Amino acid sequence: MNPLAWLALGSAAYWGVPYTVWQWWGLGVVQRGLGSARGELGLTFDDGPDPQTTPQILDALKEAGVRATFFTLGKRVEENPQLVARLLSEGHELALHGYRHRHGWLRLPSEAYGDVLAGAKALEKVSGRKPLFFRPPHGAYTWAQMAAAGKLGLKPVHWTLEAHDWHPRYGPPDVLKRVAELATPGDIIVMHDAGPGGRTSVKALPQLLAELDSRGFNPKPLAELRGLREGAWRDLPKRAWVATVDRFFDGVYHVEELNYSAHSVFRVAPGKFPGPAVKAADGRTIEPGAPAAELHLHSERMARAGEAGSLTAFRFFKRSMSDLARAAQEKPYLAQAQVFWGVSLFQEVLEPVGFQMVELPPARRKFLGAYMHFLHKMYGGTPLKRVWPKLVYIDRGALLERYG
Fold first, then answer.
1. Same domain (yes/no): 166, 207
2. Would you name the residues annotated as active-site residues?
3. Strands 40-46, 69-73: parallel, antiparallel or unpaired by DSSP?
4. Under 8 Å CB-to-CB from 33, ≥6 apart: which residues?
5. Which of 53, 194, 195, 396 is least crowded, fewest Cβ atoms below 10 Å from its Cβ?
């Protein structure tokens, strides 16, 4: 093997494998919690403490009654012990970001290993507490950093939603819009309390916390986020499905998630009603081919709600009906929709919120039933009793009368 081939192989082993296994696949790395029934989020801040911006971040959190996890740098902890004391006294969680903020890929292995040890030592010396969690700068993991984290018993943590507060094209309104509209229960959100990201977060955070609260989200430190666990091999099929099949399907059929609140479960796509002819609540007949909107479910949220019980699933659906009514009135592509329909296994919780049911032809019922049970299991839901799917629908008039 020639020298270039050896270099390529070595680079793949040192940089490519950690990126794929830990950063991309999330194996052995905490990336999210459960959080669905209570709208919980893990709120985290990187790169501090910074005397210019961290106090303002703490002020905003205190005003909102929210606690968070701070991934701190050992050198800055040593330089700002008073900020560390305030952070802890106000109930926030101290975690490790390293000793200095430098990309792990640009360090020699010995330097990367030593940086984690030095950072943990500094945090424990100043705070009197051992950190539980570790996130490397830029979320870039290396063999050396993970070995050091393992030696110290630290749990490596990534994120599911990046606020982009550091991005030069993202101002406070952009950060607010991105986090509020993309957040889902159980997410781990990464923001910053130092540097350019800290300056943007200082301006965005008060309104963002108020918006998350209005949507039913409950931000908290990682140690208190329910269902927090490291990624495993069994998670990879779901991740691959979401990244390929779900994205392809959503793109082809123009499916949009109605993410108005922490408990929104509906996703919607414009189209024609497939039939058969059905009766609206006012007695009118809705014929096949009428302007309609096809409903899909947020599979992971429903799987998590199902784990909490049928009552929780019912509450999710009931809260989401106002989201559907809002979309019917606000979305231009839904302005002419006469009926909102889908195929669902959850008839027992859909009927009480206003949906009507139509039996499906036997062959379609069996095929769609097998497919839906497969999806529910893949997304981690507890086993469902063997029920057959039905076509469910609610006409526009009934929807707006009850929930508009």
1. yes
2. 46, 192
3. parallel
4. 40, 42, 186, 188, 222, 225, 226, 227, 228, 229
5. 195
